[in-house]
Amino acid sequence: MQLENYTVFENHTIRFGPGVNLFIGESGCGKTHLLKVLYAACQSARKKVSFPYKLVCTMLPDDYKIARLKTRKAGKQNCLIRVAASTTDDASDRVLTMSFSEKTKRWDAEVRGEAGWEQSFAGSSSIFIPSGEILSHSYNLNAASQVDNVRFDDTYLDILNAAKVNMSAGGCSTSKKALLESLEEQIHGTVLYDAKRDAFYLKRGNAKQEFHLVAEGICKLALLWQLIQNGTLEEGAVLFWDEPEANLSPSCIPIVVEILLQLQRNGVQVFLATHSYLVATYFEVRKTAQDNILFHSLSCADDALQYAASPKFDDLCRNAIITQFNQLLDEIYAL
Length: 335
Prior knowledge:
Helix content: 25-40%
Structural class: alpha/beta
Number of strands: 14
CATH superfamily of the largest domain: P-loop containing nucleotide triphosphate hydrolases
Strand content: 15-25%
Strand order of the largest sheet: 7-11-12-3-13-14
């Protein structure tokens, strides 16, 4: 992926792994912006979805003006976003490019490679799990958003729509069953969608409970259960998850890591943004030789964004999590 003059990215080329890609860095270094532009590119594989329009609907600049996503530094030229899927023959139909300037109106960016991109990835699925809990907001959220009564970006609207639809091809593999059972132990139940009420419930035995009465951490695990159960997260899918640790009990983090590792083994590509030492370290200690884990670091130094990547968390340059953890240890030892 190549980003030029896009938000905080002035000129960066980032290569991703086919398994789990884990981004760390201080707030404001562009982790969520990176995940959202990748998500918009994945979504534009659908014929009815435009890459620039999807990007403004996920980023929500004022008046949907894509020009506001351009780096705001004097002298900077046009914004360029180039997303290329890994391929053995470097086929041009697997490259999607978008460019725009500060004069571009609304979302009228110049896009190249859309037709080939759509053809190459027809039928593929992608989903973005935001950092905030979403299941309790299901009731009429889409309708309210369409008439501008509320303002949620498309990641929230898309995740609810995906949770409502059963995409499973039928049957339940041993691996999928194990993932669901692991989550059921944590949430002590399953998820029920009531289409008449347009609402999700936590189902425990014969009883059901509204999700706004359930702890946010349990809601996040319940959403993951629903996405696995209904076939959204199956082979070929791409999962984006912003701060999976948010509102989650520390005891649940190794379980979530194991589930994400298994999804990666099942052919799901995973992109995570995290501030959690536990999340990053559990990936390091729980991965096997067959797992493909790549750690990415984004950091700001001397008013410039720095990028580094490593398959080992401890070897990652400019590791903000390790730096802060070491400072904490110094204070503990000083006591």
